[in-house]
Amino acid sequence: AAGVIQSPRHLIKEKRETATLKCYPIPRHDTVYWYQQGPGQDPQFLISFYEKMQSDKGSIPDRFSAQQFSDYHSELNMSSLELGDSALYFCASSPTRGETQYFGPGTRLLVL
Amino acid sequence: SQQGEEDPQALSIQEGENATMNCSYKTSINNLQWYRQNSGRGLVHLILIRSNEREKHSGRLRVTLDTSKKSSSLLITASRAADTASYFCATVRGQAGTALIFGKGTTLSVSS
């Protein structure tokens, strides 16, 4: 079965650079979520989209923005990167709001 | 954590033994889900229990939910070395939101 695809899987950036993470949800899933997981931490919700509109917002810094496109893929744009942004970034998708979320393998971002 | 605590933080057992992990949460919920995460990898959905359910089974997994105590437990019976992972409970916050709020997780180590 098709799973959530995230790219790139690994990313190394310098402080103050920008990064773009991509997420391709499972086909026919209409909701996409982004989570950040710092080392040894639990995942923290950043933002979600339902039918290409932002539906929920969590602890997403103002330096970050995201959108969902007409083909339902989503991109998380991160600017002015800080050392503390080093983390695993997960995308998840679901077919119905509030139901099971299916997670991608994550993008490991390292900011030097 | 935005949600609460998981207990214990770490658990080491032998193959064949049962493992019980507990989770507490702070707010009213729509449903509660358990996820497994192998070291540094993606989150895998295990089981979902709705707020009007008290117990649910899936293979070697048994989940209970006590909404009056705002707590849940995950029991893994006859554990295997392959069960070694971190286990997180996550709640869907309220009726309007769809984000998962994760607990801090229990790290389970099963030795053969």
Give the helix/strand layout.
The complex is a heterodimer of chains A (112) and B (112).
Chain A: E1 5-7, E2 10-13, E3 19-24, E4 31-37, E5 44-50, E6 53-57, E7 64-68, E8 74-78, E9 87-94, E10 102-103, E11 107-111
Parallel strand pairs in A: 2-11
Antiparallel strand pairs in A: 1-3, 3-8, 4-5, 4-9, 5-6, 7-8, 9-10, 9-11
Chain B: E1 6-7, E2 10-14, E3 19-24, E4 29-37, E5 43-50, E6 55-58, E7 61-66, E8 71-76, E9 85-93, E10 100-102, E11 106-111
Parallel strand pairs in B: 2-11
Antiparallel strand pairs in B: 1-3, 3-8, 4-5, 4-9, 6-7, 7-8, 9-10, 9-11
| Form type of chain A | globular
Element-by-element helix/strand order of chain B: EEEEEEEEEEE
Which value, in Å, is the CA radius of gyration of chain A?
13 Å
Helix content of chain B: under 10%
Structural class of chain A: mainly beta
Largest interface: A-B, 28 and 24 residues
For this entry, give a set of tags.
heterodimer; A: 112 residues; mainly beta; four-stranded antiparallel β-sheet; B: 112 residues; six-stranded mixed β-sheet; five-stranded antiparallel β-sheet; 11 strands; 0% helix
Explain what you see:
The complex is a heterodimer of chains A (112) and B (112). Chain A has 112 residues and is mainly β. In chain A, strand 9 and strand 10 form a beta hairpin. Helix content of chain A is 0%, strand content 51%. Chain A is built from no helices and eleven strands. Chain A has strands at 5-7, 10-13, 19-24, 31-37, 44-50, 53-57, 64-68, 74-78, 87-94, 102-103, 107-111. Chain B is mainly β. Chain B is 0% helix and 57% strand. Chain B has strands spanning 6-7, 10-14, 19-24, 29-37, 43-50, 55-58, 61-66, 71-76, 85-93, 100-102, 106-111. In chain B, the strands form two sheets. In chain B, strands 2, 4, 5, 9, 10 and 11 form a six-stranded mixed beta sheet that branches. In chain B, strands 1-3-8-7-6 form a five-stranded antiparallel beta sheet, with no helix packed on it. In chain B, a hairpin with a 2-residue loop joins strand 6 and strand 7. The relative contact order of chain B is 0.35. Classes of the chains: A mainly beta (112), B mainly beta (112). Chain A binds chain B through residues 31, 33, 35, 41-45, 48, 50, 55-56, 58, 88, 90, 92, 94, 97-106, 108, and chain B through 1-2, 30-31, 33, 35, 40-45, 48, 88, 92, 97-105.
